[in-house]
Amino acid sequence: MGRSYFVDETVEEYLVGLQTAPRSCLTGLLAGQSSPQRDFVVLAVQTPHRESEGQPKASRGVSPLDDIDVEWVTEHAKQVSRMLPGGLCILGLFLVTPPELSKDAQNALKRLIFAMDKYITKGRLWELSEEDVTDQVTLHICSKTKKTVCKTFDVKDPKSSAKPADWKYQTGVSSSWPMLTCSVEVDVQIPVSSDITDKCMKDGLRRWTKQIEAAYCLINGRQALDDSELSSGQKKNPKTTHRQTLPARIFVTDEQSELDERSSALVQVCSGSVKVRGVVYCRAYIHNNKPKARHAAQAIKRDIINTVCSRVEMFLEDLLIDEGSHKGLCSGQQALPRRVFAPMPISGLSVCDYMFPDESTADVAERLKEMLDCETPEEDIDTGLEGNQLFSDVSGSEITDSPSDDSSKHVISEVQAENPKNQKAPQYYAAFSSSSGLAANSFSGSRPYSFRKFSTSMAKNSSLRCFVIDMKLPSSSPALYTSRAGRTSSEKRSPAPVAEARIRQNLTVEYSAARQVKQLLRASHPLIPSS
Amino acid sequence: MCCDIIFRLKGILEFACQLDNPNGAQSQGTISKSFQGLQSKVSSKNIVLTVCNSPVLIWPNTGFQSNVESLTEASSCGDILQYIELDDSGTKKSSKKKDKKKSGPTVVNMKLLFEVTEPAGNEAPSLIRVSTQQHCVKMPLPLDCVLSVTTDESMATVCTGLVEALNKQLADMEEVVLRYRKGSSFLVPQPFHFQLPEPAGFTTVIYPAGVPDSQLQDAREDLHNRFKLPSDRPYLRRANAFHFPDAAYKDGYLRNPHIHLNPPNIEDAKLYLVQGVYSYHHYMQDRVDDDGWGCAYRSLQTICSWFQQQGYVETAVPTHTQIQQALVDVGDKEPRFVGSRQWIGSIEVQAVLNQLLGVTSKIMFVSQGSELTTKGRELANHFQTEGTPVMIGGGVLAHTILGVAWSENTGQIRFLILDPHYTGGEDLQTITDKGWCGWKGPEFWDQNAYYNLCLPQRPKTI
Q1: Residue A39 covered by a domain
Q2: Contact (CB<8Å) A266/B14
Q3: Main role (chain A) (predicted)?
Q4: Are B113 and A216 in contact (CB under 8 A)?
Q5: Do A417 and A325 belong together in one domain?
Q6: Are B139 and A335 in contact (CB < 8 Å)?
Q7: pLDDT for position A60
Q8: Does the structure show a pLDDT above 60 at B114?
Q9: Taking burial as the number of CB atoms within 10 A of a residue's CB, which of A20, A479, A492, B145 is the most buried?
Q10: Domain count, chain A
Q11: Alpha-carbon torsion A226, A232, A234, A238, what sign?
Q12: B117 and A272: CB-CB below 8 Å?
């Protein structure tokens, strides 16, 4: 007796409409909500095309199935899971293959599903409870007959075999799902020693996470502790499309277990501290098939934890690119990205994204297109749910202990037209050096998700400037992007003539050096496209 | 006690501060500032009080709001009892009835919570980085405030009172933390509640964790002066802390089973009883089969438990082996005595009390059991001044005397006896019904045997 997946009709439309090249495969994600009795799928997204570097990909394996870029699929899954509000998560994968590959599809799916689950759950701060469903669904679609085969794997058990599952299409699966919302004030102090690492940030947040998990919760004014049903106060009426909004209130307490009883304070000598502070807006959906109040509470709590965790992760990813070695930690206040929401196509649920201070709704819309394969009009993106970032001037003296005079810097820019067909925006590499070495970043016109923060990382080191040259038009003057007090001004200013000359002179000399750096970076950060 | 309800509010607040130089002059200011931050936290709109085992939530700093509509600021606090779900253990029903007669005020336990939703502002999330080397100090403060009131007191008064108590406790904790701090070594300030004689009444004192009572003598002297307490007996040792009626004793021994008894009906007699708290020790406890030989040892254990619970000693009640070893150590017995099943008498009890607890005792000798009826005055005096349990040994038996009912005029006397020969479990019902703890007449004693009584004396100390 397998699991039952109730799938929204829009997902069916999407899957049917997928175009695959002959003899090739297509992967994608399935997202929705699991409950102990049944599962609901509300979203399907194909894996976005990875920018290949103009060289035709030599087929390494025997079949196109071996060419599936597992890392890319899992990275996409991670990025999409950050965009899902509480209650929703990645439920599984789909794979479209030509008929001749169908029999090997299951193995490929099994590999992918385990890899994906492992990657997504790595670094997650909250623990699964006993009631959480650990089955993930795999859907195989034959590109010719459009026939689907649906199976599940228990990702808790590496030896588990595929179990059959039901895949049923329905209209309006999520149309009446109530939406829980709250704004949460966060104020966590994390001591750090020498490096700000993912581990030390996560450890610092762990206590806060446990407080949230154990917190009292009121949903729509009622305590959400026991097995009572979540009463949304509204009779389930399939005709109503009105989605109820249930405000949630969270109350934390600091329980001290008896084992923990200390007689003295915990003192840590640290080389600094990081405080995560501000108000985050949280949202969660709960299915309306007799949900229990405490599951709803759990969904909103997990969203609170996830949204803080994701932003900290993004900050750390940024730091990795930005500061190479972690010498010269700068002090001051830095904005974490702001959470914005956009409607999901047709299902009426919303997805979220994180907007850095220098970004606009256009950037968000671009990312939604890239990650979720959906067009979102910019005016539909709700940016008003969280506060506007106000920058405090980062005074020069606070910033870094390493010498930062311009004369010691070489600014190298280099352009590589990766895909001559892509006329949309110039692709360019821009590099800047800090006292610790060279770092090079590359990004295409639409910022790939890992490198979105390039301009913000520039913004942080206000003593650095970036010169960008479009190599397609070498005679054009370099665009100078200066950053001041954390804000990027994107107007082009003409640089001082001395600087310009130096750039051109350096260009040839350091072109190769930059190449080397790129290789280095690629080795440590595999998503940088090779050139 | 004139009050009917004790509201007890517990919660943990994390104290955190960053010290650049723990030994520097500025550190005290930084610490005080952190405490002030905590005080404003408990006065903020975000604090919520919840009544344990009930759905009641109260916002005390927003002009009193509660999630239960019928509970308003004007409601009398006694109303809160109807919302509390009591534990239905279902055992010892009739002893519950007896308890009702003797039980004191009802305790309403509350917990301190902080709301993190409904924020006052909409500050955008950010990361604030500080890169100076510092000592990060984190310490959980175990807040524990009590407020004793009558049932007709309004909820508003109760809540204001509790918030004030929280603020005061934080101030007291700050004082203790600063006083006992050494550089970056901070001791956790722990609250203890004491039921003191008037005018002090129900009082809370903060002691630093890990510092034994023996080192807090000066602090206690100060407090004895302040609260006008006699200076010859302990009131403020940790062991003297008020035992809340709803809290179970973790060690499982019964406390003061005699309070459940009806006093004997003698004309003109006054009761002279043991003061304070003791535990009932008897045969077969602690998986030691001492049936037939251990009665004096058990009586001695009961006496030791009294000294421990009145705060005179911090050592645990000694085992049979430890008692025997003590007698060997003082030269009273040969080494092979340890591990044997030999009886001991009042003299040995006196010796052990002296050796292990530093307690002196008086020995009273009675040449025949019938003479005990003439000892009414002496025993009455003992219970009035010392109030310690008395061990009596004679014939082939040892018992503990917990008090006398004695008439000065008629000379009639009854003895409150705690019998160590009981071999069953800690069942109060059986113990009181079957007389294992009970009032006995003069016929209880072997009229012809001689008896020795050991009367332990209270040390004159605080």
Answers
A1: yes
A2: no
A3: May play a role in the trafficking of a subset of G-protein coupled receptors.
A4: yes
A5: yes
A6: no
A7: 53
A8: yes
A9: B145
A10: 2
A11: negative
A12: no
- Chain B interface test: which of A253, A277, A307, A352 (most B C-beta within 10 Å): A253
Residue B230: pLDDT above 60?
A: yes
Q: Does B37 touch chain A (CB under 8 A)?
A: no
B55, B124, B187 member nearest A278 (Cβ): B124
Give yes or no for residue B262 having a pLDDT over 70: yes
A107-125 confidence digits (pLDDT tens):
889 989 999 999 998 878 8
CA distance A281 to A247: 12
**Residue type present at position A308:** V
Domain map of chain B by residue range?
5-83+104-116+133-240, 257-456
Which position has the token pair 């203790």?
A: B176
Alpha helices in B126-196 (DSSP H): 155-180
Residues whose CB is less than 8 angstroms from the CB of residue B362 and which lie 6 or more positions away in sequence, other chains included: B454, B455, B457
The verdict on A99 and A223 lying in the same domain is no
Establish whether B260 is a catalytic residue.
Answer: no
Say whether pLDDT at B132 is over 50. yes
Tell me what percent of the residues of chain A surpass a pLDDT of 90: 27
Q: Mean pLDDT highest for which of A200-209, A240-249, B157-166, B239-248?
A: B157-166
pLDDT of residue A448: 38
If asked whether residues A140 and A215 sit together in one domain, one would say: no
Please indicate, yes or no, whether residues A204 and A113 belong to a single structural domain of this protein: no
Substitution target in A182, A192, A209, A254 with the highest count of B β-carbons within 10 Å is A254
CA distance B127 to chain A (A): 5
Do A389 and B126 lie within an 8 Å CB cutoff? yes
A493, part of any domain: no
**Considering only A413-417, B84-88, B240-244, which range has the smallest mean pLDDT?**
A413-417
Do residue A82 and residue A116 come from a single domain?
yes
Min Cα–Cα distance to chain A from B130, Å: 5
CATH code, domain carrying A17: 3.40.140.10
- Angstrom distance (rounded) from CA A447 to CA A453: 9
Q: Map residue B244 onto helix, strand or coil.
A: coil
Looking at residue A58, its pLDDT comes to: 52
B199 has a chain A CB within 8 A of its CB:
no
> Would you call B131 and A331 a contact, using CB atoms and an 8 Å cutoff?
yes
Q: What is the ipTM of this complex?
A: 0.80
**Quick one: closest CA in A to B117, which residue?**
A184
pTM above 0.80, yes or no: no
CB atoms within 10 A of CB B106: 17
Taking CB atoms and an 8 Å cutoff, what residues of chain B touch A359?
none
**Helix B155-180 to helix B27-42 angle, to the nearest 10 degrees?**
170
Check residue A92 and give its pLDDT.
94
Q: Does B12 touch chain A (CB under 8 A)?
A: yes
Strand blocks (E) in B196-336: 202-208, 270-273
In the residue annotation, B421 being an active-site residue is answered as yes
Mean pLDDT taken over chain A: 72
Q: Identify whether A475 is part of a domain.
A: no
Q: Which of B4, B246, B332, B421 is catalytic?
A: B421
Nearest residue of A to residue B13 by CA position?
Answer: A254
Highest CATH level, class, for B257-456? alpha beta
Question: For an interface test with A, which of B41, B46, B126, B143 has the most A Cβ atoms less than 10 Å from its Cβ?
Answer: B126
Report the alpha-carbon distance of residue B154 to residue A411 in Å, rounded.
73
How confident is residue A409, by pLDDT bands cut at 50, 70 and 90?
Answer: very low
First to last CA, chain B: 24
Question: What's the DSSP call for residue B371?
Answer: G
Task: Answer for the pair A459, A391: CB distance below 8 angstroms, yes or no.
Answer: no
A and B: number of Cβ contacts within 8 A? 187
Domain that holds residue A254: 179-232+244-469
Q: Are residues A142 and A278 in the same domain?
A: no
A23-66 tens-digit pLDDT? 888 999 999 999 888 999 999 999 988 765 444 455 555 677 77
Q: What tens digit of pLDDT does each residue of A183-198 get?
A: 999 999 888 877 777 7
